Amino acid sequence: MSLADLKRRYRWQCRRGASEVEVVLYGYLDHHFEQDSEANRALFPKLLECADVDMLEWFTARSEPQDPELRAYVRHILGLVSASS
């Protein structure tokens, strides 16, 4: 599947109840997903499986994922999105 096809698939999955979560997800998908490493792109669907309330906590720095790989990925995404704001 091409990167464009993946982005189209993920775009729908980025729709969330909390706008704070959407800002981060769409910011990453629109501006960083294609340039990111294949390993990081492979973690995006894992992040999308997480609950909105958890992502809201992570993206507002109230907590972090317990999974070390996901924790590093969330930090990576937040760094990219905040640097491009």
Automatic annotation (TrEMBL):
| Record-given protein name | FAD assembly factor SdhE
Query: Where's it mainly located?
Result: cytoplasm
Q: Where is the signal peptide?
A: none
Example of a GO biological process term = succinate metabolic process
Q: InterPro entries given for it? A: SDH, SDH_sf, SdhE_FAD_assembly_factor
Its subcellular locations are:
Cytoplasm
Short name of any one Pfam family annotated for the protein = Sdh5
Record-linked SUPFAM superfamilies: YgfY-like
Q: Which domain of life is it from?
A: Bacteria
User: What does UniProt give as GO cellular component?
Assistant: cytoplasm
- Tell me the keywords, alphabetical order: Chaperone, Cytoplasm
- Family per record: Belongs to the SdhE FAD assembly factor family.
